[in-house]
Amino acid sequence: MQYIILAAALALAGSAEAAMHHATGTFEVAMTVAPGEPAWLNRMTMTKTDAGALVAVAAGEFLSAGDPRTGSAGYIAAERIDGTLDGRAGTFVVMQSATMDKGAPVTRVFVVPGSATGALAGMTGTMTIRIENRQHSYDLDYDFVP
Length: 146
Fold this sequence. Notes:
Layout: H1 2-19, E1 21-33, E2 41-52, E3 54-67, E4 72-85, E5 88-101, E6 104-111, E7 123-132, E8 135-144
Antiparallel strand pairs: 1-2, 1-8, 2-3, 3-4, 4-5, 5-6, 6-7, 7-8
């Protein structure tokens, strides 16, 4: 009996993972430095254009500190994304936080709960951002909750 319950639990866990959607693509980002910030803080506004499974434009705020030239810094950012994801139109907000310690990055990007609108309402998820040869790309794992 215990084996049947365990098998059923594993099957349900596997089906939840299978229900997750995956989107990939590229993006271009432009940053504008805000004047008048203290020397230790960099504040910027950003605009992004996403291509691939997510066709969108985004606007956001970005705060960073540290010295990226030495490979040690950190940032936080929030951006509102407006577009179409796998054929569903709407908006959602992502929050980002990252640190880099002597060149070793740790990044977290997630969809803000309750932020999605339109056909994206109820969206949850996480995003991975990669920069290779100066090309920005994303992997977005997402789902919808009632």
